[in-house]
Amino acid sequence: MKLEFKLPELGENIVSGTVTKVLIAVGDSVAVDQPIIELETDKAVVEIPSTISGTVTEIQAQVGKSINVGEVVFAVTTEPVSGTEAPTLKRELQTAERPKPATPPAGGPKPAAPKPAAPPSQPLLAAPSVRRLARQLGVDIEQVSGTGMSGRVSAENVKAFAARGATEPAIASAPEQPLPPARPVDQDRWGAVERQPMSAIRRKTAVHMTTAWQTIPHVTHFDSADITSVEAFRKQYAKQVEEAGGRLTVTVILLKVLASALRKFPRFNASVDMENQEVLFKKYIHIGVAVDTPHGLLVPVVRDVDRKSIVEMAVEVPQLAEKARARKLTLDEMQGGTFTLTNLGGLGGVGFTPIINAPEVAVLGISRARFEPVFVNGGFAPRLMLPLCVSYDHRVIDGADAARFLRWVAEALEQPFVLMLDEPKDDG
Q1: Is the pLDDT confidence value at 123 over 70?
Q2: Which of 135, 297, 298, 327 has the most other CB atoms within 10 Å of its CB?
Q3: Domain that includes residue 61, residue range
Q4: Which among 355, 364, 354 is positioned nearest to 408, based on CA atoms?
Q5: pLDDT tens-digit profile of 137-149?
Q6: Is residue 169 part of a domain?
Q7: Which of 77, 102, 136 is the last residue of a domain?
Q8: Number of folded domains in the chain?
Q9: Residue 332: left if φ>0, alpha if ψ -120 to 50, beta else—which one?
Q10: In this structure, is residue 370 part of a structural domain?
């Protein structure tokens, strides 16, 4: 009997991937849960395990080619059932597959030939995660035409529709164009040009950031924090944290500060549902930490930040960053964030305007700390000052909210031991 393995659902907003490696060959015996291909999605390279077993007879997945959720990856044949059971099983399968004709009542007239019925209206095909994305972006998904199999609407279809301002339905036959329409088609007239295709990560970043910028009214607020005491605290306990297997950084300390800040300012830990005119206040705190990698920007998520100690996060964050650079992050490790922290301090600069990672409503950015003369206790003294910026969604957060939030974060950094008075209580 022939069985086909189709690419399963990969995660929220993931509708396709590029095959980077095929781990089986025609003639191989495949078992359930055996990895059969490596797939590069927008943010990670993952192994896809088989859910069927048998002898491989056909492989449709090809290295370097894109494959969509629901498409056939490979096919197998299974051993026929021995003895007299095989014909019986075959007949049962054929009977199950063949529709049974309607039997007219005894003595009654023969049924008339059925009239061709009008084709029923085709329901819109879209995954729950795609419908949720449409609600978050304020898009009527019924107006979006899908470009997937059988007209299935993908997350990219919704984002492209939103990027056009939702002024007209998407055209299924037209290629998606979420980026600005201008194309540098004649740039080689001025000199030599080398064209390089975007990587999967760069394509996803370009689409996601363009959509976020065009659909979220961004405002950025700036402040600075005196982290002289924090730096002394960090140096004092760095060795102790290293012995526990972690690395105590400003990013880790900031995660602890943000856990308290997001509890105090829940509007920054929310999402917008424009379709239902609601704000979703999340009761959990999962913070994404932007990581610069050779492949592009990746954002692993630290879950339940409010329930973890600084030492626990000092161990977890470097591990997630290393997995990001090695392309070993799982899809689950990059989903579900409620707020994002991005640190460019290691590269320099005095400030920047980070783009919100939708469906979140705010992102905190920090730049390089530097010593500056600050007037303290009647005189100037050298203090280590950390530039802070928060970009926020003006549909949910007002300027005064952002000013209070960032000032609270700054003051918490200036008095790190005060955070110990605000430790979360154990729900048990």
Answers
A1: no
A2: 298
A3: 2-77
A4: 364
A5: 778 888 888 887 6
A6: no
A7: 77
A8: 2
A9: alpha
A10: yes
